[in-house]
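Researcher: Go.
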Amino acid sequence: MARPTQDFADRPPWTRPSFIASAALVLIVIIAGLLVAVLGPDGDGSDVADGTPPSNPAPAQSGPQQALPTAVPTTAPAGVRWELVGPLAVPVSATAGPTQVTGTTASGFAHTPEGALIAAAQIGMRSSYSLGREYWEPTTERQFVPSADRDRLLAEHRASDSRPADSGAQSQIAGFSYQSYTPDTAVIGLVLRAPSAGTPRYHVLSLTLLWRDGDWRMQAPPGGAWASVNRVTSDLTGVVEWGAR
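Model: Structure:
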């Protein structure tokens, strides 16, 4: 006996095969759309699942940083005025420093060859024993690079029972010569004119300054003895004359 042919026209529309197939296709399209929205075009869900928008990478910095000046002056720096610290004349520059001056110390020097020169003169003179403890002690403690030589220099000064020299017997700045210079280290010959009635005599102190913590700082002489970096001469060949007039 032949089975009757099934008539789909009499069935509800949602039970017909064509309706079921269309519904399944629509469901697949919806699911695919949701996956694209969640995962993004690159296929990962970063920055979207938690509601955070994707971040753009920071632009790379372009161009080299401006190089620090290294050309040392071959003439006396312009725009320098001289001020007295006790009986000693020290240089002050609007461009090279110092920018911070207390009653006994001076700091804040430009990161340039001229800044190193002004620092050598200011720190070198203010650390002189002849000025008195109120000058040399804070200057040596704060503006010298910490080292065993610095500590020995301080100890020698503190143990000395001699009196500072009178003002007429103190040497004054008379010139300079750069022995070497880099943005990290400057070695400068600071020339001092010794008081004398006869042939002029000069002391050349070979001073080393290091760029530390945003300022020029003095390196103590070996063994804490200034005599180790002092040379006496009457010949100023190669020296730039510089000093109070």
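Model: The CA atoms of residues 129 and 157 lie 7 Å apart.
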